[in-house]
Write a structure and sequence with these properties.
Length: 567
């Protein structure tokens, strides 16, 4: 194994960093930031239904996902929450996913029926993207059964175009999905993970205590390959999984992160697998990929074990210009935080840092990099929760409901878990699954939504941030309309940051398709560069902070709107 480039522990930081930075170490974040639970006040009344009726079917443990989507193009982030439903032929109530419209005043209205989305399905995950380049974001929902593509009709409603688009498959147990223009032809392609080859007819009996049935581990069932659907540019898709070199029936995939691992300008794909090696597919720039997970160092733990990977994200958390990879794992396995060594290799820095120690006993699902305090350094959030409510009888140190992690970036010198300082409700124990971020009140500070298995969704408002922010929305012309895959670099007096606009990541979920750059004390961005998937490069200069700027490919700033004043 390669030697660790270890993060300094919190104890060392107090000695090792300059006096100006000591406030970062072992104490609350610099600003009195907290996350306020606004779920009830906002009118979010959602409860996930996993359909459990005593048979302990494997899909019951997994969902649901959640997404931010501005489905009506009014500039405010709406929310879509995936739901399960009763199993066919078994007692239970029929439920549907939920679409919540943002009313611009801190409240949301349930518009599911009005939008044509009140369709019962055993839902898992969701991906947001404008697959037909008409300027309106569409929804792709993964399920146990038949996945669904919902086309945005531009009038607040959606139409199920799955069959018309050629996306029908035999019943599969799908998980996360992501839109990615892997061949850079200007049309968003679709990558879908599949978990295992399970069905009620193939269900097996498993038991943790030898007396009662428990949920089986994925090792009980054969794996299933991801699917890559190529967008034909005419509203239809073609399955190119084998042609692209992605077919692998041994995988048991749950999460997708799109990243440019080697900075060659082409999107690569990282997949988190459950009890199978994680995968890193490097784009060969000719419509095919080469799997490099083992060679890159992300396939296994440091002791050579394929961990139970759940959620995944990628981000330039050390501001090296190269993205690192975050993977959430099972309890007793700790998180993986892979630092990109810029030579094709990744090194897991978690075991020798507070990240590993503080996450050892928790089971992570949703996860994402985001700059919650807007200081220009990416932090990250992890939603935790176990799979089986009987786990506490079997392992006394493990809990079914678990508090989350919020790791504050110590200016590139490690991370400090500050979740306990963010408010009692925020730090409460949950059986959490999906998680996404989005700025629901347009004040520049990213807010968080999380789901729980067979329980409520929770919405948290980010309050107390004092740093400047710049939000950037992209409008592709030659590239796909969302600008997914574009890389935006922002230089200010205090920071230089780089972010790729991406679909997917976290676990079954989709964060907003707007990039937020924390600028710290800087009131403007001195320079902005946008590298579009088409190859077009746009340069802007002297852009004021505290606004949302729409950049149109090839023509620069198309619109600006000031951010709302923070409370």
């Amino acid at each position: 194994m390669h030697p660790h480039r270890a993060f300094l522990s919190t104890a060392l930081l107090a000695v090792a960093v300059p006096a100006a930075l000591t406030a970062f170490s072992g104490s609350p974040a610099p600003a009195p930031i907290h996350f306020t639970d606004v779920t009830q006040k906002a009118g979010i009344h959602f409860t996930h239904n996993n359909g459990a009726f005593g048979k302990k079917y494997l899909p019951e443990t997994m969902g649901p996902g959640v997404a931010f989507i501005d489905y009506d193009n009014d500039g405010w982030q709406d929310m879509f929450i995936v739901n399960g439903t009763a199993w066919t032929g078994h007692p239970g109530h029929v439920t549907t996913p939920a679409l919540y419209h943002n009313n611009h005043d801190g409240t949301f209205t349930d518009v599911t029926k009005k939008a044509g989305l009140a369709i019962p399905m055993y839902g898992m995950g969701v991906a947001v993207g404008d697959y037909d380049n008409d300027g309106w974001d569409d929804l792709f929902v993964t399920t146990y059964g038949q996945n669904h593509l919902f086309r945005n009709n531009h009038n607040g409603t959606f139409t199920d175009v799955t069959k018309k688009a050629g996306l029908t498959t035999p019943p599969e147990f799908s998980a996360s999905a992501a839109w990615v223009d892997y061949d850079r032809d200007g049309h968003l392609d679709l990558l879908v993970t599949n978990y295992v080859d399970w069905s009620p007819a193939k269900d097996r009996y498993c038991s943790m205590d030898g007396k009662t049935k428990s949920y089986c581990t994925p090792e009980t069932y054969p794996g299933a390959s991801v699917r890559l659907w190529h967008n034909n540019g005419n509203g239809t898709f073609t399955d190119v999984t084998k042609k692209a070199g992605l077919y692998d029936s041994s995988s048991k995939s749950l999460g997708i992160a799109v990243l440019d691992a080697n900075q060659d300008g082409w999107p690569d794909i990282a997949i988190s697998n459950d009890t199978q090696p994680n995968k890193l597919y490097i784009n060969n720039r000719n419509g095919t990929f080469t799997e490099q997970g083992v060679a890159a160092g992300i396939a296994y733990s440091d002791d050579g074990v394929a961990r139970a990977g759940m959620g995944i994200d990628a981000g330039d958390y050390d501001r090296s210009g190269y993205p690192g990879i975050l993977v959430t794992n099972f309890s007793n396995q700790m998180l993986a935080l892979y630092q990109n060594q810029r030579n094709g290799l990744f090194v897991d820095t978690a075991p020798s840092s507070q990240v590993g120690r503080s996450s050892l006993l928790t089971l992570g699902f949703g996860c994402f990099f985001f700059d919650y305090d807007l200081d220009g350094w990416p932090d990250f959030y992890v939603a935790d929760g176990h799979l089986d409510d009987s786990i506490e009888r079997i392992q006394q140190r493990i809990r079914f409901a678990e508090p989350p992690h919020l790791y504050h970036n110590l200016a590139g010198k490690g991370f400090d878990d500050v979740a306990a300082q963010m408010g009692q409700s925020f730090d409460a124990a949950r059986v959490a699954r999906g998680a996404a971020y989005g700025d629901i009140n347009n004040d520049g500070a990213p807010d968080i939504v999380i789901t729980t298995n067979n329980g409520p969704a929770s919405l948290f408002l980010n309050e107390g941030a004092t740093n400047h922010a710049l939000r950037i929305k992209l409008a592709g012309t030659k590239s796909n309309r969302d600008g997914i895959g574009a890389v935006v670099s922002v230089k200010s007096a205090t920071t230089f940051q780089k972010q790729m606009l991406r679909s997917g990541s976290s676990y079954l979920s989709a964060s907003e398709l707007v990039l937020t750059f924390g600028l710290g004390s800087s009131a403007k961005a001195d320079a902005i560069e946008v590298r579009w998937p088409s190859g077009v490069v746009d340069h802007l200069s002297n852009i004021n902070a505290d606004q949302i700027v729409t950049i149109r490919e090839g023509s620069g700033v198309a619109a600006t709107h000031p951010l709302q004043k923070r409370q």
